[in-house]
Request: fold
Amino acid sequence: MSFSESDIKKALSFVIEPDLKKDIIELNLVSNIKLEENKISFDLQISNPAMHNKKRIIEACEIHLNRILKTSIDLDVNILAIPKPTEIPKSKNPLPNVKNIIAIASGKGGVGKSTVTANLAIALAQKGYKVGLVDADIYGPSMPLMFNVEHEKPQPVEKNGRNLITPVESYGVKILSIGFFADTNQAVVWRGPMATRALTQLFTEADWGELDYMLIDLPPGTGDIHLSLVQTVPVTGAIIVSTPQKVALIDARKAVGMFSLEQINVPILGMIENMAYFSPEELPDNKYYIFGQDGLKSLAQEQKLPLLGEIPLVQSIREAGDAGRPAILQETSTQATAFNAFAENVITEVANRNKKLDPTQKVTITNMDGCSTK
Ligand SMILES: Nc1ncnc2c1ncn2[C@@H]1O[C@H](COP(=O)(O)OP(=O)(O)O)[C@@H](O)[C@H]1O
Ligand SMILES: [Mg+2]
Reply:
């Protein structure tokens, strides 16, 4: 015998894997080479081990071995399939019966995010949609008060062998809030993993049933809760709430930046201007732009985002919230009209988004580096 294993490899380096378009030695597809007299055997992995592919590649091996080794050989090739990369299971959507999940966010606190969310939820329910609301502002849950269900406790229910909690219902909206499980003072001390786990349970361990819209009232700012949210459920889109005030606009811009981050990647449906102008109850046609005018309009234009509405600053909006009867219920009032127009725009923008883009996938974050907004 006048040839070695390296001669065999040299010969086989002329054989090209048809799908991978590189030679089988370079691709490290040949193993277990055995040599006995002029009998050569080895294992060869190929990407598509269909019969004709096997035949062709064995022929190619034979031709090049005969050519390089300059002798007639007895060849035995054991063809194997290249193992497929272990398929990463698509992260399971814990809410397959919820059509649209909408996060309501603001950069700054106190801009009326919860007020806007509560009124939007009721407006959608009044239009006949099935609506759920998750109060994810675990540091300042306000939905129990706004929906006048402060003293209710979500009841346990067994569904398909799982112990779930039933959301509390008010004004046609299904609601869950950390506020139902801990008093507000207690919730304030929750941080990090504990807060995240509590929030996750509101989505995954509740009997939400079928919903057209699930609204999420996020805590202000750009923090852990936002990241944990996009890892828990596939968010359809986000709405940014801001007042026309400069400090609020600066933070609104940061919120836009956060949702656009590669690691978050949630489309923004649009912006809503709250406390756009002050209207005295007795002079509803008078508008006083006490926080400035057009600030959010220009930010929306700059970011190429729709402005979904303008909600006036009216005393009764505040009173209605505190009394647990959101202003949308004051039919025909200017404020109810403003909230209704906003809800219509939200419906339109969600539909537009669903036409243009694929459903958002839950985010799998393994490396949080670079996950900060400037
Ligand atoms: N358009 C408005 N007119 C009058 N008061 C409002 C309006 N929007 C919000 N408020 C009041 O401002 C305060 C802060 O609103 P809230 O919705 O709790 O803000 P956030 O959730 O952003 O912290 C509340 O007392 C609320 O009733
Ligand atoms: Mg709030």
